[in-house]
Amino acid sequence: MWNFRHAAVCILAAILALLSSGASAMAQGGAAAVPILVYHRFGPVAADGMTVTTGVFEDQLAWLRTHGYRVIPLRTLVAALSDPAAALPPRAVVVTVDDGHRTVYSDMLPLIRRERLPVTLFLYPSAISNADYAMTWDQVAEIARTGLVDVQSHTYWHPNFRRERARLAPDAYRAFVKTQLERSKEVIGRRFGAPVDMLAWPFGIHDAELERWAAAAGYRAAFTLERRPARRGADLLALPRYLVTDADRGARFRAIIEGAERGRPGS
């Protein structure tokens, strides 16, 4: 009898320890490492290296759904990375889209409407309603009205900051960066009346000085193109994202997501 009682006590203690461990993990944010995916263009064929065919994108979303992953808003992730007490669901994934290409409206929007998926759209306002490859402001407004898409900044006209630093005098470069960061923020905020406090670095280029200027301009978080998962304790103004291409299908896409979940960079 004593042995039975002793064994029962040991089993109960083990169960309580597991429960406590699970609760502690949720208090620390649920998922230890979260992949942030970034797309650019969609379409029936991969016309260039940045296009993900619409069928591949649809298959990726289906794979996430059937394997128990949950797409969460980028803003939710940033808040959790900033707050040790915030919780995240397990198997969280974030979807972002850069630039504002017209296929975001024609190809992506129907799918995220059907799946009810939150997406963050980083756009550079100079192209919208101007460049033939870009959406119009009316189309961006329609996307924003779904409540699924958070429109954020990709600077004003997507410059290469490394090149601009090399060609401009220091004061001129500082003024140039300030305009790129602040004008985009002002235009998007005025059009949609929502906070514009997240930034996608053009070409993923960033450094400590650019990060300081982004913080001074009112950006809470900014995002690169480094292929690794986002974690607590990371630099919020240089959070990594996985650039998704049309080749990231099947096993390659699975390697990104599962590798990120285990804290590895992925292929």
Please give a handful of descriptors for the protein shown.
globular; six-stranded parallel β-sheet; TIM Barrel; 9 helices; 267 residues; alpha/beta
What's a concise summary of this model?
By secondary structure, this protein is α/β, with parallel strands linked by helices. Helix content is 45%, strand content 14%.
CATH topology of the largest domain: TIM Barrel
Fourth-tier CATH superfamily name of the largest domain: Glycoside hydrolase/deacetylase
What is the total number of structural domains?
2
- Main beta sheet: 6 strands, parallel
The average pLDDT value, as a whole number, equals 89
- Give the radius of gyration: 21 Å
Amount of beta strand: 5-15%
| SSE run | HEEEHEHEHEHEHHEHEEH
Count every beta strand, where a strand is a DSSP E run of 2 or more residues.
Answer: 10
Low-confidence stretches: 1-30
CATH architectural name of the largest domain: Alpha-Beta Barrel
